[in-house]
Design brief:
The structure holds 2 protein chains of 2 kinds. Chain A is mostly helical. Chain A folds into 3 domains: about 10-70, Arc Repressor Mutant, subunit A (Orthogonal Bundle), CATH 1.10.10; about 75-130, Arc Repressor Mutant, subunit A, CATH 1.10.10; about 140-180. Helices cover about 60% and strands about 10% of the residues of chain A. Chain A starts with 8 loop residues before the first helix and ends with a helix. The model of chain A has no long low-confidence stretch (mean pLDDT about 90). By secondary structure, chain B is an alpha/beta fold. Classes of the chains: A mainly alpha, B alpha/beta.
Chain lengths: ~180, ~240
Protein backbone atom coordinates (compact mmCIF):
# COMPACT_ATOMS: atom_id res chain seq x y z
CA UNK A 1 0.00 0.00 0.00
CA UNK A 2 1.22 3.45 -0.85
CA UNK A 3 2.45 5.47 2.06
CA UNK A 4 1.82 8.77 0.29
CA UNK A 5 -0.74 10.01 2.83
CA UNK A 6 1.01 8.73 5.94
CA UNK A 7 3.47 11.53 6.50
CA UNK A 8 3.48 11.18 10.28
CA UNK A 9 2.65 14.86 10.64
CA UNK A 10 -0.59 14.40 12.55
CA UNK A 11 0.91 12.24 15.35
CA UNK A 12 3.79 14.70 15.66
CA UNK A 13 1.37 17.65 15.67
CA UNK A 14 -0.73 15.86 18.31
CA UNK A 15 2.31 15.54 20.57
CA UNK A 16 2.92 19.29 20.27
CA UNK A 17 -0.78 20.00 20.94
CA UNK A 18 -0.64 17.84 24.08
CA UNK A 19 2.45 19.66 25.30
CA UNK A 20 1.07 23.14 24.66
CA UNK A 21 -2.54 22.64 25.80
CA UNK A 22 -3.76 25.88 24.20
CA UNK A 23 -2.26 26.81 20.87
CA UNK A 24 -2.51 28.56 17.52
CA UNK A 25 -1.57 27.07 14.16
CA UNK A 26 1.74 28.95 14.21
CA UNK A 27 2.61 27.38 17.60
CA UNK A 28 2.30 23.91 16.07
CA UNK A 29 4.44 24.96 13.10
CA UNK A 30 7.09 26.34 15.48
CA UNK A 31 6.86 23.24 17.69
CA UNK A 32 7.47 20.90 14.76
CA UNK A 33 10.53 22.88 13.70
CA UNK A 34 12.32 21.39 10.69
CA UNK A 35 9.41 19.08 9.84
CA UNK A 36 7.58 22.07 8.34
CA UNK A 37 9.54 23.52 5.49
CA UNK A 38 7.10 24.36 2.71
CA UNK A 39 3.72 26.00 2.45
CA UNK A 40 2.33 22.58 1.52
CA UNK A 41 3.49 21.21 4.91
CA UNK A 42 1.82 24.12 6.63
CA UNK A 43 -1.40 23.35 4.80
CA UNK A 44 -1.16 19.78 6.05
CA UNK A 45 -0.95 21.08 9.61
CA UNK A 46 -4.09 23.14 9.05
CA UNK A 47 -5.81 20.01 7.74
CA UNK A 48 -4.61 18.01 10.76
CA UNK A 49 -6.08 20.67 13.09
CA UNK A 50 -9.35 20.57 11.15
CA UNK A 51 -9.50 16.76 11.41
CA UNK A 52 -8.66 16.79 15.13
CA UNK A 53 -11.41 19.34 15.70
CA UNK A 54 -13.89 17.22 13.77
CA UNK A 55 -12.96 14.18 15.86
CA UNK A 56 -13.43 16.18 19.07
CA UNK A 57 -9.78 15.98 20.07
CA UNK A 58 -9.46 19.77 20.16
CA UNK A 59 -11.96 22.55 20.76
CA UNK A 60 -11.86 26.14 19.49
CA UNK A 61 -11.83 28.56 22.38
CA UNK A 62 -11.72 31.70 20.21
CA UNK A 63 -10.92 32.59 16.62
CA UNK A 64 -7.66 30.86 15.73
CA UNK A 65 -7.06 29.60 19.27
CA UNK A 66 -7.52 25.93 20.09
CA UNK A 67 -7.38 23.73 23.16
CA UNK A 68 -6.39 20.07 23.27
CA UNK A 69 -9.00 18.03 25.17
CA UNK A 70 -7.78 14.54 24.37
CA UNK A 71 -8.51 11.73 22.04
CA UNK A 72 -12.04 10.40 22.49
CA UNK A 73 -12.09 6.65 22.95
CA UNK A 74 -14.65 5.04 20.64
CA UNK A 75 -17.37 3.28 22.62
CA UNK A 76 -16.73 -0.40 23.22
CA UNK A 77 -19.02 -3.01 21.72
CA UNK A 78 -20.62 -3.77 25.08
CA UNK A 79 -21.35 -0.08 25.58
CA UNK A 80 -22.90 0.15 22.13
CA UNK A 81 -25.09 -2.87 22.81
CA UNK A 82 -26.10 -1.42 26.15
CA UNK A 83 -27.14 1.87 24.52
CA UNK A 84 -29.20 0.06 21.89
CA UNK A 85 -30.88 -2.11 24.50
CA UNK A 86 -31.75 0.87 26.69
CA UNK A 87 -33.11 2.88 23.77
CA UNK A 88 -35.24 0.06 22.40
CA UNK A 89 -36.06 -1.78 25.67
CA UNK A 90 -36.68 -5.01 23.78
CA UNK A 91 -34.25 -6.35 21.20
CA UNK A 92 -33.39 -9.34 19.08
CA UNK A 93 -29.84 -10.56 18.57
CA UNK A 94 -30.13 -9.24 15.02
CA UNK A 95 -30.85 -5.71 16.30
CA UNK A 96 -27.61 -5.74 18.24
CA UNK A 97 -25.74 -7.11 15.25
CA UNK A 98 -27.18 -4.39 13.02
CA UNK A 99 -27.04 -1.38 15.30
CA UNK A 100 -24.01 -2.17 17.46
CA UNK A 101 -22.04 -4.12 14.87
CA UNK A 102 -21.36 -7.18 17.02
CA UNK A 103 -21.18 -10.80 16.01
CA UNK A 104 -24.15 -13.07 16.63
CA UNK A 105 -22.32 -15.20 19.19
CA UNK A 106 -21.07 -12.19 21.18
CA UNK A 107 -24.53 -10.58 21.23
CA UNK A 108 -26.03 -13.87 22.45
CA UNK A 109 -23.36 -14.33 25.12
CA UNK A 110 -23.84 -10.75 26.35
CA UNK A 111 -27.64 -11.07 26.48
CA UNK A 112 -27.30 -14.34 28.38
CA UNK A 113 -25.06 -12.59 30.91
CA UNK A 114 -27.69 -9.87 31.34
CA UNK A 115 -30.37 -12.51 31.77
CA UNK A 116 -28.30 -14.18 34.53
CA UNK A 117 -28.03 -10.78 36.25
CA UNK A 118 -31.79 -10.23 36.02
CA UNK A 119 -31.60 -7.28 33.61
CA UNK A 120 -33.37 -8.93 30.67
CA UNK A 121 -35.56 -11.94 30.11
CA UNK A 122 -35.70 -14.15 27.05
CA UNK A 123 -39.10 -14.31 25.42
CA UNK A 124 -40.38 -17.25 23.40
CA UNK A 125 -40.36 -15.27 20.16
CA UNK A 126 -36.61 -14.79 20.34
CA UNK A 127 -36.72 -11.26 21.74
CA UNK A 128 -34.91 -10.14 24.86
CA UNK A 129 -36.92 -7.78 27.00
CA UNK A 130 -35.43 -5.40 29.53
CA UNK A 131 -37.01 -5.98 32.93
CA UNK A 132 -34.71 -3.91 35.12
CA UNK A 133 -32.80 -0.78 34.18
CA UNK A 134 -29.69 -0.23 36.32
CA UNK A 135 -28.77 2.77 34.01
CA UNK A 136 -25.07 1.92 34.26
CA UNK A 137 -23.88 -0.97 32.17
CA UNK A 138 -23.51 -4.25 34.08
CA UNK A 139 -20.08 -5.76 33.62
CA UNK A 140 -19.49 -9.35 32.71
CA UNK A 141 -17.51 -10.19 35.86
CA UNK A 142 -17.49 -13.93 35.29
CA UNK A 143 -15.91 -13.52 31.87
CA UNK A 144 -13.41 -10.95 33.16
CA UNK A 145 -12.34 -13.37 35.90
CA UNK A 146 -12.17 -16.27 33.47
CA UNK A 147 -10.01 -14.28 31.06
CA UNK A 148 -7.81 -13.00 33.89
CA UNK A 149 -7.30 -16.59 35.10
CA UNK A 150 -6.44 -17.70 31.57
CA UNK A 151 -3.96 -14.86 31.12
CA UNK A 152 -2.33 -15.68 34.46
CA UNK A 153 -2.06 -19.34 33.49
CA UNK A 154 -0.53 -18.42 30.11
CA UNK A 155 1.92 -16.09 31.82
CA UNK A 156 3.00 -18.79 34.27
CA UNK A 157 3.44 -21.25 31.41
CA UNK A 158 5.53 -18.70 29.47
CA UNK A 159 7.74 -18.03 32.53
CA UNK A 160 8.22 -21.77 33.10
CA UNK A 161 9.13 -22.27 29.41
CA UNK A 162 11.56 -19.37 29.60
CA UNK A 163 13.21 -20.79 32.73
CA UNK A 164 13.49 -24.17 31.02
CA UNK A 165 15.05 -22.58 27.93
CA UNK A 166 17.51 -20.62 30.09
CA UNK A 167 18.47 -23.81 31.91
CA UNK A 168 19.00 -25.57 28.58
CA UNK A 169 21.21 -22.68 27.36
CA UNK A 170 23.25 -22.85 30.57
CA UNK A 171 23.66 -26.59 30.17
CA UNK A 172 24.74 -26.11 26.54
CA UNK A 173 27.25 -23.44 27.56
CA UNK A 174 28.68 -25.75 30.23
CA UNK A 175 28.93 -28.57 27.71
CA UNK A 176 30.70 -26.32 25.17
CA UNK A 177 33.18 -25.06 27.77
CA UNK A 178 33.75 -28.72 28.79
CA UNK A 179 34.55 -29.59 25.18
CA UNK A 180 37.01 -26.68 24.87
CA UNK A 181 38.85 -27.82 27.99
CA UNK B 1 -29.31 -25.01 -2.82
CA UNK B 2 -27.79 -23.54 0.29
CA UNK B 3 -30.30 -21.77 2.55
CA UNK B 4 -30.45 -18.01 2.20
CA UNK B 5 -29.84 -16.24 5.49
CA UNK B 6 -30.55 -12.65 6.40
CA UNK B 7 -27.39 -10.80 7.39
CA UNK B 8 -28.31 -8.09 9.90
CA UNK B 9 -26.48 -5.10 8.48
CA UNK B 10 -27.31 -1.44 8.94
CA UNK B 11 -28.04 -0.04 5.52
CA UNK B 12 -27.07 3.55 4.86
CA UNK B 13 -30.05 4.82 2.91
CA UNK B 14 -30.35 8.35 1.54
CA UNK B 15 -32.28 9.35 4.67
CA UNK B 16 -29.61 7.96 6.98
CA UNK B 17 -26.90 9.73 4.98
CA UNK B 18 -28.74 13.04 5.34
CA UNK B 19 -29.19 12.38 9.06
CA UNK B 20 -25.47 11.66 9.55
CA UNK B 21 -24.48 14.80 7.66
CA UNK B 22 -26.84 16.88 9.80
CA UNK B 23 -25.38 15.40 12.99
CA UNK B 24 -21.85 16.19 11.80
CA UNK B 25 -22.90 19.75 11.04
CA UNK B 26 -24.43 20.11 14.51
CA UNK B 27 -21.24 18.80 16.07
CA UNK B 28 -19.20 21.42 14.19
CA UNK B 29 -21.22 24.30 15.64
CA UNK B 30 -20.10 23.49 19.19
CA UNK B 31 -19.94 26.15 21.86
CA UNK B 32 -23.49 27.39 21.48
CA UNK B 33 -26.98 26.05 22.07
CA UNK B 34 -28.48 24.52 18.97
CA UNK B 35 -31.39 22.37 17.99
CA UNK B 36 -31.81 19.86 15.21
CA UNK B 37 -35.03 18.29 14.07
CA UNK B 38 -35.67 15.03 12.31
CA UNK B 39 -39.18 14.49 11.09
CA UNK B 40 -41.16 12.25 8.82
CA UNK B 41 -43.89 9.68 8.77
CA UNK B 42 -43.83 6.61 11.02
CA UNK B 43 -41.84 3.61 9.84
CA UNK B 44 -39.23 5.43 7.78
CA UNK B 45 -36.36 4.59 10.14
CA UNK B 46 -35.92 7.87 12.05
CA UNK B 47 -35.60 6.29 15.48
CA UNK B 48 -33.48 3.44 14.12
CA UNK B 49 -31.03 5.88 12.53
CA UNK B 50 -30.97 7.86 15.77
CA UNK B 51 -30.36 4.70 17.83
CA UNK B 52 -27.48 3.72 15.55
CA UNK B 53 -25.94 7.19 15.86
CA UNK B 54 -26.51 7.13 19.62
CA UNK B 55 -24.72 3.77 19.89
CA UNK B 56 -21.70 5.05 17.99
CA UNK B 57 -21.34 8.49 19.59
CA UNK B 58 -21.28 10.05 23.05
CA UNK B 59 -24.92 11.01 23.49
CA UNK B 60 -28.00 10.42 25.57
CA UNK B 61 -31.34 9.20 24.27
CA UNK B 62 -34.65 10.09 25.88
CA UNK B 63 -38.01 8.90 24.65
CA UNK B 64 -40.78 11.23 25.74
CA UNK B 65 -43.69 9.65 27.61
CA UNK B 66 -47.22 10.94 27.58
CA UNK B 67 -47.36 10.29 31.32
CA UNK B 68 -45.09 13.30 31.88
CA UNK B 69 -47.50 15.77 30.25
CA UNK B 70 -48.33 17.53 33.49
CA UNK B 71 -44.91 17.35 35.07
CA UNK B 72 -41.72 18.83 33.60
CA UNK B 73 -39.99 17.47 36.73
CA UNK B 74 -40.44 13.91 35.49
CA UNK B 75 -39.05 14.92 32.10
CA UNK B 76 -36.02 16.58 33.67
CA UNK B 77 -35.54 13.66 36.08
CA UNK B 78 -35.39 11.29 33.12
CA UNK B 79 -32.72 13.46 31.51
CA UNK B 80 -30.80 13.48 34.82
CA UNK B 81 -31.08 9.69 34.98
CA UNK B 82 -29.61 9.35 31.48
CA UNK B 83 -26.81 11.73 32.47
CA UNK B 84 -26.03 9.39 35.39
CA UNK B 85 -26.87 12.04 38.01
CA UNK B 86 -27.58 10.00 41.10
CA UNK B 87 -29.80 10.60 42.96
CA UNK B 88 -31.70 12.94 40.65
CA UNK B 89 -32.79 16.09 42.52
CA UNK B 90 -36.43 16.19 43.54
CA UNK B 91 -37.21 19.75 42.45
CA UNK B 92 -37.62 20.96 38.88
CA UNK B 93 -35.07 23.80 39.14
CA UNK B 94 -32.47 21.62 40.83
CA UNK B 95 -32.93 18.91 38.18
CA UNK B 96 -32.46 21.47 35.43
CA UNK B 97 -29.30 22.92 37.01
CA UNK B 98 -27.85 19.45 37.59
CA UNK B 99 -28.47 18.54 33.94
CA UNK B 100 -26.88 21.80 32.73
CA UNK B 101 -23.82 21.27 34.96
CA UNK B 102 -23.38 17.71 33.78
CA UNK B 103 -23.65 18.70 30.10
CA UNK B 104 -21.25 21.60 30.55
CA UNK B 105 -18.73 19.28 32.20
CA UNK B 106 -19.08 16.52 29.61
CA UNK B 107 -20.74 17.77 26.42
CA UNK B 108 -22.95 15.13 24.82
CA UNK B 109 -25.62 15.35 22.16
CA UNK B 110 -29.11 14.90 23.58
CA UNK B 111 -31.58 13.02 21.39
CA UNK B 112 -35.24 13.37 22.35
CA UNK B 113 -37.74 11.17 20.58
CA UNK B 114 -41.45 12.02 20.25
CA UNK B 115 -41.34 15.30 22.15
CA UNK B 116 -44.41 16.52 20.25
CA UNK B 117 -46.53 14.32 22.51
CA UNK B 118 -45.87 16.75 25.38
CA UNK B 119 -47.24 20.30 25.86
CA UNK B 120 -45.32 23.22 24.23
CA UNK B 121 -43.73 24.30 27.52
CA UNK B 122 -41.54 21.21 27.33
CA UNK B 123 -40.07 22.62 24.15
CA UNK B 124 -39.23 25.82 26.04
CA UNK B 125 -37.47 23.78 28.72
CA UNK B 126 -35.57 21.90 26.01
CA UNK B 127 -34.53 25.16 24.36
CA UNK B 128 -33.33 26.56 27.70
CA UNK B 129 -31.39 23.37 28.34
CA UNK B 130 -29.68 23.67 24.96
CA UNK B 131 -28.95 27.39 25.43
CA UNK B 132 -27.47 27.09 28.90
CA UNK B 133 -25.59 23.84 28.50
CA UNK B 134 -24.32 24.77 24.99
CA UNK B 135 -25.14 21.32 23.69
CA UNK B 136 -26.87 20.09 20.58
CA UNK B 137 -30.35 18.74 21.15
CA UNK B 138 -31.94 16.70 18.40
CA UNK B 139 -35.71 16.32 18.33
CA UNK B 140 -37.20 13.38 16.49
CA UNK B 141 -40.85 13.13 15.61
CA UNK B 142 -43.54 12.99 13.01
CA UNK B 143 -44.86 15.93 10.99
CA UNK B 144 -46.67 17.28 14.09
CA UNK B 145 -43.24 18.26 15.34
CA UNK B 146 -43.12 21.06 12.75
CA UNK B 147 -46.40 22.65 13.85
CA UNK B 148 -45.35 22.10 17.44
CA UNK B 149 -42.20 24.11 16.79
CA UNK B 150 -44.04 26.71 14.69
CA UNK B 151 -45.66 27.96 17.88
CA UNK B 152 -42.38 29.34 19.02
CA UNK B 153 -40.25 31.53 16.74
CA UNK B 154 -37.33 31.54 19.18
CA UNK B 155 -37.06 27.81 18.78
CA UNK B 156 -36.91 28.03 14.99
CA UNK B 157 -34.14 30.60 15.07
CA UNK B 158 -32.04 28.13 17.06
CA UNK B 159 -32.78 25.23 14.78
CA UNK B 160 -29.63 24.64 12.80
CA UNK B 161 -30.56 21.50 10.99
CA UNK B 162 -33.80 19.94 9.82
CA UNK B 163 -33.86 16.54 8.18
CA UNK B 164 -36.96 15.18 6.58
CA UNK B 165 -37.14 11.42 6.35
CA UNK B 166 -38.70 10.72 3.00
CA UNK B 167 -40.24 7.46 1.81
CA UNK B 168 -37.58 4.92 0.81
CA UNK B 169 -36.64 4.84 -2.85
CA UNK B 170 -36.43 1.91 -5.24
CA UNK B 171 -32.63 2.01 -5.14
CA UNK B 172 -32.70 1.80 -1.33
CA UNK B 173 -34.96 -1.24 -1.46
CA UNK B 174 -32.78 -3.00 -4.04
CA UNK B 175 -29.64 -2.29 -2.03
CA UNK B 176 -31.30 -3.37 1.22
CA UNK B 177 -32.44 -6.72 -0.21
CA UNK B 178 -29.06 -7.37 -1.82
CA UNK B 179 -26.98 -6.47 1.23
CA UNK B 180 -29.23 -8.21 3.75
CA UNK B 181 -29.12 -11.48 1.87
CA UNK B 182 -25.39 -11.30 1.30
CA UNK B 183 -25.95 -10.77 -2.43
CA UNK B 184 -27.98 -13.98 -2.81
CA UNK B 185 -31.20 -12.20 -3.78
CA UNK B 186 -30.92 -9.46 -6.36
CA UNK B 187 -34.30 -7.92 -7.13
CA UNK B 188 -35.11 -7.23 -10.74
CA UNK B 189 -36.25 -3.71 -11.44
CA UNK B 190 -39.79 -4.87 -12.09
CA UNK B 191 -39.98 -6.68 -8.74
CA UNK B 192 -38.39 -3.76 -6.90
CA UNK B 193 -40.87 -1.39 -8.47
CA UNK B 194 -43.84 -3.52 -7.36
CA UNK B 195 -42.43 -3.80 -3.85
CA UNK B 196 -41.77 -0.06 -3.71
CA UNK B 197 -45.36 0.74 -4.72
CA UNK B 198 -46.76 -1.70 -2.19
CA UNK B 199 -44.55 -0.47 0.65
CA UNK B 200 -45.48 3.16 0.14
CA UNK B 201 -42.05 4.14 1.37
CA UNK B 202 -42.32 2.33 4.71
CA UNK B 203 -38.96 0.84 5.65
CA UNK B 204 -40.29 -1.11 8.62
CA UNK B 205 -42.58 -3.04 6.27
CA UNK B 206 -39.66 -3.62 3.91
CA UNK B 207 -37.81 -5.44 6.69
CA UNK B 208 -40.79 -7.64 7.48
CA UNK B 209 -41.47 -8.35 3.80
CA UNK B 210 -37.87 -9.44 3.30
CA UNK B 211 -38.20 -12.00 6.12
CA UNK B 212 -41.18 -13.59 4.38
CA UNK B 213 -39.51 -13.37 0.99
CA UNK B 214 -36.42 -15.20 2.23
CA UNK B 215 -38.61 -17.89 3.81
CA UNK B 216 -40.42 -18.29 0.52
CA UNK B 217 -37.17 -18.49 -1.44
CA UNK B 218 -35.78 -21.11 0.92
CA UNK B 219 -38.97 -23.16 0.72
CA UNK B 220 -38.90 -23.06 -3.09
CA UNK B 221 -35.12 -23.50 -3.16
CA UNK B 222 -34.61 -20.58 -5.50
CA UNK B 223 -33.11 -17.12 -5.40
CA UNK B 224 -35.00 -15.88 -8.45
CA UNK B 225 -37.71 -13.66 -7.07
CA UNK B 226 -40.88 -13.14 -9.08
CA UNK B 227 -43.52 -10.45 -8.80
CA UNK B 228 -45.92 -13.04 -7.46
CA UNK B 229 -43.52 -13.96 -4.65
CA UNK B 230 -43.17 -10.27 -3.77
CA UNK B 231 -46.94 -9.88 -3.54
CA UNK B 232 -47.31 -12.96 -1.34
CA UNK B 233 -44.46 -11.88 0.98
CA UNK B 234 -45.86 -8.38 1.26
CA UNK B 235 -49.34 -9.63 2.11
CA UNK B 236 -47.89 -11.93 4.73
CA UNK B 237 -45.87 -9.10 6.24
CA UNK B 238 -48.70 -6.63 6.14
CA UNK B 239 -51.48 -8.77 7.52
CA UNK B 240 -49.45 -11.23 9.47
CA UNK B 241 -51.12 -14.06 7.55
CA UNK B 242 -49.76 -15.58 4.37
CA UNK B 243 -51.71 -15.50 1.08
CA UNK B 244 -54.49 -13.30 2.46
Amino acid sequence: MSNKWHTGLTPAAREVMKKLGRFRTQDIVDGLGSMIQTYKDRRRIKKAIYDCRKRGEITRTERGLYEYVGKMKPPELQEKMWKVLRAKRSVEKEDLQELAGTSESYAYEWLQMLARNGVVRHLDNGRWQMIYDPVEMPLNKEKTQRLRGRRLKNKEAAIAALAKAMQAIEEAKTAISGLKE
Amino acid sequence: MELIKIVPDFIITKNVRNFNVAMDYLAMAEGEGRLGIVYGEAGLGKSRAATKWHADNPSIYVRACEAWDTSPTDYLKEICKELLIRPAPKRKGACFSAAVDSLLKTPRTVIIDELEKLPPRFLEITRDLSDLSLTAIVLIGEYELLSYMDQNSRVWSRTYQGVEFKPVEIADIMMYVKKSTGGRIVLKEECASVLHTKLGGNFRLARRTLLHLVQDCNAKKTSDVTVEMIKIAFNAAYTGRKNK
